[in-house]
User: Fold this.
Amino acid sequence: MTEPDTVIRPALAEDISRIMSLEQGSIAHPWDVREIEKLISDNNKKCYVVQYEGTVVSYLGAETVLDECNIGNVVTDEKYRGRGFAKALMSYLLDDLKQSGIVKVFLEVEHDNAPAIALYEKSGFVRYGQRRDYYGQGRDAVLMSKELC
Ligand SMILES: CC(C)(COP(=O)(O)OP(=O)(O)OC[C@H]1O[C@@H](n2cnc3c(N)ncnc32)[C@H](O)[C@@H]1OP(=O)(O)O)[C@@H](O)C(=O)NCCC(=O)NCCS
Assistant:
């Protein structure tokens, strides 16, 4: 972690409204409150936040199925981007997944989302395919994965 006074921790119910506002500011189709509640409470889901100087500035949501995981969303508050928060969160998740016996992690990202693709490549993900019009007409998804062992 590059910044002092930074904590990475599992998301709590009290973080839901902050997570929703991060989603709404950054994601075309934000999750609703019930989806975020499930993300926090379900045993097969993972939701972590970065708290910096007392404020939740970044969060990540993922789902595990057997020994695999799919990362749903990663968002950093626009004001705090480029400071290593998402990279630290990703590293935290990958360590946690490895310790839990997860062997492979998947994600999809819009083909022109350069910051997210760079984040994932820096975290060791490689491209294995592309899904045409996945996010709408002309908006392809790049499919990426990472082996954990
Ligand atoms: C993608 C996102 C989560 C990155 O968050 P962040 O906290 O700014 O990322 P970090 O500061 O940890 O950067 C991690 C790496 O990503 C890359 N990166 C981050 N922002 C970048 C940018 N604007 N352009 C190019 N690469 C970028 C860098 O390679 C960086 O690694 P480095 O510091 O070693 O060079 C953030 O831009 C965001 O919230 N975007 C909107 C939501 C979104 O599209 N989420 C992903 C799809 S669900």
User: Anything to note?
Assistant: The mean pLDDT is 95. The longest strand covers residues 55-65. The CA atoms of residues 15 and 56 lie 8 Å apart. The domain at 6-107 is CATH 3.40.630.30 (Aminopeptidase).
